[in-house]
Amino acid sequence: MRALLAAAVLIAPSALAQVVRVEPRVFVKAHRVFVSGGFTWLERGDYYNSPGGAFSAAYYLGEDDAVELRTALFASWLGASGEQVVRRTGLVPDAQKPVSLLTGGWRHSLAYGKVALAGSILHFDVQGGLDLGTLFTDRALTPAACGFFGVMARLSDRLYGQLDLGILTSIEHRSTSVFTAGFLPLLTLGARL
Amino acid sequence: MRAPLLALLAAACGEVHFVEPNPPRLFRNTAEFTSAAVSEPVVWVAVTNLFIQDASECAWARQTTLAAVREAIARAGGEQIEVNAQDLAPDCRRRGEAQLDVDALRAGFGAAQIALPASHVRPLIVYVDNIDFPLVAESASIEQARATIVQFPALLWTVSFESVSAQLHADRSVDWSYAGDPTLPDRIGELVKAELPLESTATAASGAVPLLDGSQLDVAREFKVCAVPPGAAPDSYPALGTTHVLDGAHPPTITFQLPQVVASPKSSFWNSTFKASVEGCTANCDRYFIREPGADPYRWSDMPDCALGNQ
């Protein structure tokens, strides 16, 4: 017990001598508009390859919550396996070809962090959210919902990058009405206005 | 646990089926034929066997009763021949005083058949009896008369008590009430209305019945015969389940052999109805038909059966 007290007396002054430094939040979003554009790919097992361009605009109500509008335009074409069936038999998939996506929703920051990366510090938010809207296909306008999880990272004072991994669901009339689900990653670069 | 989860996931992601963008345009038709009936002449005879206590009323009772029967039978309309009536109790004193003259009946009905060579003569015997007691001698002769007169067994109607009509196994019966009953013509008339004239199937076969109607012939390119009834005449229609190219100059037909009903009382006569189903194709006949989402596709023209058959 005596030894323990002696050790505490020796250590305590040096510990008290250290300065605790807390860096202020660098990636500030509250009451600001963020716009971005980039690439996306809709994969839903429908025999179509559906890469596309995505655009979004978000207004942050605070540091953690934002409302956003998002649109995507797809350049869809029938994949090789589907094309082969069409060529051989004339049969076509009953899935509708995705053309564009228009959604609006809510985005929430789950955590803020920073990492040392290639000699610099990268500030980022881990975010999640839910968008509702419509998926336009070559035949119809279908109700759609997209849940996502992703990272929004500060690249410079005004620029930022965003990677969202989403699940896009919709109700589509094929041979019968079906509930569809697809993977929708989005990689965009944007600016704070 | 894993399999249901995977199935649920697959269903949730929405199955994709390959479909035919230009499916065969098909229609279904049912060719129907109902046989017709022809009326046969009414060839009949009245046989009376009346017991009247007051002998002076015998003739009157017989004449009144015969008149009632004649009036009722006349309501059948059409061609009618009445064979001379027979009276088995001329004095109305004792039942069966006279024997039924079966030869005379046979001769009378035979003459009617000769007079009506194109008809099926089935005689009708109207037996009138007013005693509520089983017959002793007349039963056998009446039975003989029914069985042996012409090619068809005669029909027997009785105007009598139940004891007699049951003993004679009458085809139809009217209850006896009393001599001169004014309701008798109407009560017999109800029977006449229900049963006469006797009817026969008009023809032995239907003739050529078109499998496709006029508007369908204009648009159909190919067709298949899906199903025909057992009464279809063999080789009278295109082969079943095979695709046939429609020849507008020779539209497909079918002939039905009709079950023959001859000189049947109206209440037991039936018309036969035959139906044959056909599937026609107006376009894309060589394209795929898919019965339901995910089912195997078959080219309609190669299918061994009709596509719309089970839908």
Topology diagram in text:
The complex is a heterodimer of chains A (193) and B (311).
Chain A: H1 2-17, E1 33-42, E2 48-60, E3 65-74, E4 77-78, H2 80-89, E5 92-93, E6 98-117, E7 120-137, E8 141-154, E9 159-173, E10 177-192
Antiparallel strand pairs in A: 1-2, 1-10, 2-3, 2-4, 3-6, 6-7, 7-8, 8-9, 9-10
Chain B: H1 2-12, E1 18-19, E2 25-34, E3 37-39, E4 42-49, H2 58-74, E5 80-82, E6 86-87, H3 102-115, E7 124-129, H4 138-148, E8 155-160, H5 162-168, E9 172-175, H6 184-195, E10 199-201, E11 205-210, H7 214-219, E12 222-227, E13 244-245, E14 253-257, E15 273-283, E16 288-290, E17 297-299
Parallel strand pairs in B: 4-5, 4-6, 4-7, 7-8, 8-9
Antiparallel strand pairs in B: 2-15, 3-10, 11-14, 12-13, 12-15, 16-17
Helix pairs in contact in B: 2-6, 3-4
Structural account:
The complex is a heterodimer of chains A (193) and B (311). With 193 residues, chain A is mainly beta. Chain A has a single domain (29-192), classed as Beta Barrel (Porin), CATH 2.40.160. Helix content of chain A is 13%, strand content 62%. Chain A has two helices and ten strands, in the order H-E-E-E-E-H-E-E-E-E-E-E. Chain A has an eight-stranded antiparallel β-barrel with strand order 1-2-3-6-7-8-9-10. Chain B has 311 residues and is α/β, with parallel strands linked by helices. Helices cover 25% and strands 27% of the residues of chain B. Chain B has helices at residues 2-12, 58-74, 102-115, 138-148, 162-168, 184-195, 214-219; strands at 18-19, 25-34, 37-39, 42-49, 80-82, 86-87, 124-129, 155-160, 172-175, 199-201, 205-210, 222-227, 244-245, 253-257, 273-283, 288-290, 297-299. In chain B, the strands form five sheets. In chain B, strands 4, 5, 6, 7, 8 and 9 form a six-stranded parallel beta sheet that branches. A four-stranded antiparallel beta sheet of chain B has the order 2-15-12-13, with no helix packed on it. The interface between A and B is medium-sized, with 21 and 17 residues. Strand 5 of chain A pairs antiparallel with strand 1 (18-19) of chain B, so a sheet runs across the interface.
